[in-house]
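Below is our example:
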Amino acid sequence: MSQTFLIPIKNLKIYRQFKIGNVLFVSSPSNVRDKRFTKVMNEIMTAKKDVQSKRYLYQKEKFENHSIAIVEINKDNDKQAQEEAEKTIDHSLNVLRFYLSYLSEHDPIFYSMFMGREGTTFTGLTAALAFRSDGTSYFSSKRIGHIFGFEVNKNVMHQIRKSYFDKLNKLLLKHEETLSPFEKSLLTSIDFYGYAMNEYNLRNKFISFMISLESLLLDQRENKGMLAERVALIIENDAAQREEVAKLVRDMYDIRSDIVHEGKDEVTEADIRHVSQIVFHVILTLLSFADKVNDKKMLRSRLAMLKFRSPKFKL
């Protein structure tokens, strides 16, 4: 049985509807072209004010002033259908987070911008009361969470489409069993990149970016040296730039190891900028070659043939 899910998305403003994979994003409830949706919303407004109608009214309010994600799921079980809908929408949102990380008109890292389904994004003004040892006290507060919401306007969408969006969209539309191992790795990497963009804690954010990178370029037995070399060969063209990037990746891997093995929690905003920028360019470059690589072993073999003084990486 087919079920159509409509789910509000917080902190996302779009200038017109677009699709990512099987998910249609529309700018507001008024732009939902589904008579069933309009009918339900109207019925809620005219219903008697009993307990059930108040519950529906609360749900209606969640849709107001938000973009809407729409997806059709073929499952009979309601719970399984909703879980599949949320999973599918999250995949598409991760693609959007990936592109908007460096194509947004605001700086999502500086402004701690988050976007997603209700419960996956937040903002608020904290409250704290402190007592000093000298007997004085004070209140303190700070705003956490997003300051600006993401916006996909005409210019941003133009930049996204120039960055292999159509190629990535085709991967999302393929049945999972028809994806090559490398295509699956690309989609997994983008998912972890998207999770990182929607993570508030800097340590967790950093680890998700590193998982995104390692899942594309390393197998379980390889070390930071191999990762650094491959990243440098992929995103830079001359020897000096490659040496600089390789050192940066080795440093990032050391931070990752300190977090995982030593329990350290020393991650700065600069670390986040470095790792996110590198991973973004690696994914974007490899996305352009997605149809020429069958698996990561093939990619690693091709990279093994290059040296730092080799010409620009291509397949």
Residues 78-103 form the longest helix (26 residues). The longest strand covers residues 2-10.
